Amino acid sequence: MPLLLDTGVLYALADKDDEWHERCVDYVQSSRELLLVPVTVIPEAAYLVRARLGSSAERQLIRSISEREVTLESLTDVDVDRCTDLMGKYTDIGFVDASVVAIAERLRLTAIATTDRRHFSGIRPHHRASFTLVP
Questions:
Q1: Mean pLDDT of the chain
Q2: Which of 18, 31, 35, 100 has an alpha carbon within 20 to 30 A of 2's alpha carbon?
Q3: Residues 86-115: what's their mean pLDDT?
Protein backbone atom coordinates (compact mmCIF):
# COMPACT_ATOMS: atom_id res chain seq x y z
CA MET A 1 0.00 0.00 0.00
CA PRO A 2 1.39 3.46 -0.86
CA LEU A 3 2.57 5.83 1.86
CA LEU A 4 1.49 9.47 1.63
CA LEU A 5 4.14 12.00 2.72
CA ASP A 6 3.24 15.31 4.33
CA THR A 7 5.27 18.53 4.21
CA GLY A 8 6.99 17.98 7.56
CA VAL A 9 8.49 14.68 6.45
CA LEU A 10 9.85 16.17 3.22
CA TYR A 11 11.35 19.02 5.20
CA ALA A 12 12.83 16.71 7.84
CA LEU A 13 14.44 14.58 5.14
CA ALA A 14 16.17 17.69 3.79
CA ASP A 15 17.27 19.21 7.12
CA LYS A 16 19.90 17.16 8.97
CA ASP A 17 19.39 19.36 12.05
CA ASP A 18 15.64 18.80 12.23
CA GLU A 19 14.53 16.76 15.27
CA TRP A 20 12.58 14.42 12.95
CA HIS A 21 15.41 13.94 10.42
CA GLU A 22 16.81 10.64 11.63
CA ARG A 23 13.39 9.07 12.25
CA CYS A 24 12.15 10.11 8.81
CA VAL A 25 15.28 8.96 6.99
CA ASP A 26 15.25 5.60 8.79
CA TYR A 27 11.56 5.08 8.12
CA VAL A 28 11.67 6.03 4.44
CA GLN A 29 14.82 3.97 3.79
CA SER A 30 13.32 0.89 5.42
CA SER A 31 9.92 1.30 3.76
CA ARG A 32 9.01 -0.93 0.85
CA GLU A 33 5.95 1.17 0.09
CA LEU A 34 5.51 3.48 -2.86
CA LEU A 35 6.12 7.00 -1.54
CA LEU A 36 3.40 9.40 -2.69
CA VAL A 37 3.58 13.17 -2.36
CA PRO A 38 0.46 15.25 -2.97
CA VAL A 39 1.17 18.02 -5.48
CA THR A 40 -0.15 20.48 -2.90
CA VAL A 41 2.68 19.59 -0.51
CA ILE A 42 5.48 20.47 -2.94
CA PRO A 43 5.16 24.30 -2.90
CA GLU A 44 4.91 24.34 0.90
CA ALA A 45 7.92 22.04 1.33
CA ALA A 46 9.95 23.91 -1.28
CA TYR A 47 9.22 27.23 0.40
CA LEU A 48 10.27 25.96 3.82
CA VAL A 49 13.42 24.31 2.49
CA ARG A 50 14.45 27.43 0.58
CA ALA A 51 13.66 29.82 3.45
CA ARG A 52 15.47 27.75 6.07
CA LEU A 53 18.15 25.85 4.15
CA GLY A 54 18.75 27.87 0.98
CA SER A 55 18.30 27.59 -2.75
CA SER A 56 20.69 24.67 -3.16
CA ALA A 57 18.64 22.54 -0.76
CA GLU A 58 15.46 23.54 -2.58
CA ARG A 59 16.99 22.44 -5.90
CA GLN A 60 17.94 19.11 -4.32
CA LEU A 61 14.36 18.62 -3.14
CA ILE A 62 13.02 19.28 -6.63
CA ARG A 63 15.74 17.09 -8.15
CA SER A 64 14.66 14.19 -5.93
CA ILE A 65 11.12 14.61 -7.22
CA SER A 66 12.23 14.84 -10.86
CA GLU A 67 14.34 11.70 -10.38
CA ARG A 68 11.19 9.88 -9.22
CA GLU A 69 12.40 9.17 -5.68
CA VAL A 70 8.79 9.90 -4.81
CA THR A 71 5.63 9.76 -6.91
CA LEU A 72 3.44 12.82 -7.27
CA GLU A 73 -0.27 12.41 -6.60
CA SER A 74 -2.60 14.90 -8.24
CA LEU A 75 -5.69 16.42 -6.71
CA THR A 76 -9.04 15.58 -8.28
CA ASP A 77 -12.16 17.74 -8.32
CA VAL A 78 -13.67 15.40 -5.74
CA ASP A 79 -10.59 15.90 -3.54
CA VAL A 80 -10.99 19.68 -3.71
CA ASP A 81 -14.66 19.37 -2.73
CA ARG A 82 -13.65 17.14 0.19
CA CYS A 83 -11.02 19.72 1.25
CA THR A 84 -13.80 22.27 1.66
CA ASP A 85 -15.72 19.86 3.90
CA LEU A 86 -12.64 18.99 5.94
CA MET A 87 -11.62 22.63 6.42
CA GLY A 88 -15.14 23.42 7.64
CA LYS A 89 -15.18 20.53 10.10
CA TYR A 90 -11.56 20.85 11.29
CA THR A 91 -11.06 24.62 11.33
CA ASP A 92 -7.45 24.36 12.52
CA ILE A 93 -6.25 22.67 9.32
CA GLY A 94 -5.46 24.47 6.11
CA PHE A 95 -5.76 23.46 2.50
CA VAL A 96 -2.52 21.48 2.31
CA ASP A 97 -3.38 19.26 5.29
CA ALA A 98 -6.95 18.87 4.02
CA SER A 99 -5.62 17.80 0.63
CA VAL A 100 -3.44 15.14 2.25
CA VAL A 101 -6.49 13.75 4.05
CA ALA A 102 -8.70 13.92 0.95
CA ILE A 103 -6.16 12.02 -1.13
CA ALA A 104 -5.62 9.46 1.64
CA GLU A 105 -9.38 8.91 1.81
CA ARG A 106 -9.73 8.57 -1.96
CA LEU A 107 -6.92 6.03 -2.10
CA ARG A 108 -8.20 4.35 1.08
CA LEU A 109 -4.77 4.63 2.70
CA THR A 110 -4.31 3.63 6.31
CA ALA A 111 -1.15 5.61 7.11
CA ILE A 112 0.19 9.12 6.60
CA ALA A 113 3.85 10.01 7.06
CA THR A 114 3.79 13.28 8.98
CA THR A 115 5.50 15.19 11.74
CA ASP A 116 2.24 17.04 12.41
CA ARG A 117 0.65 14.88 15.09
CA ARG A 118 -1.43 17.76 16.44
CA HIS A 119 -3.52 18.21 13.31
CA PHE A 120 -3.67 14.73 11.83
CA SER A 121 -4.35 12.80 15.04
CA GLY A 122 -7.75 14.46 15.48
CA ILE A 123 -9.04 13.82 11.98
CA ARG A 124 -11.57 11.03 11.49
CA PRO A 125 -11.43 9.86 7.86
CA HIS A 126 -14.44 8.42 6.07
CA HIS A 127 -13.00 4.96 5.57
CA ARG A 128 -11.57 4.14 9.00
CA ALA A 129 -11.57 5.31 12.62
CA SER A 130 -8.23 7.13 12.30
CA PHE A 131 -5.00 7.22 10.35
CA THR A 132 -1.83 5.53 11.51
CA LEU A 133 0.72 8.33 11.74
CA VAL A 134 4.33 7.42 10.97
CA PRO A 135 7.24 7.53 11.59
A1: 96
A2: 18
A3: 97
Other C-beta atoms lying within 10 Å of the C-beta of residue 112: 23
Q: Which helix (H) or strand (E) holds 71?
A: strand 71-73
The CATH code for residues 3-128 is 3.40.50.1010
- The helix (run of H) or strand (run of E) holding residue 3 is strand 3-5
Residues in the chain: 135
Decide: residue 108, CB within 10 A, 0-12 exposed, 13-18 middle, 19+ buried: exposed
CA 57: distance to chain centroid?
Answer: 18
Q: What is the pLDDT of residue 93?
A: 96
Nearest to 118 by CA among 103, 97, 89: 97
- Mean pLDDT value of segment 38-60: 97
Exposed / middle / buried, residue 40 (Cβ in 10 Å: 0-12, 13-18, 19+): buried
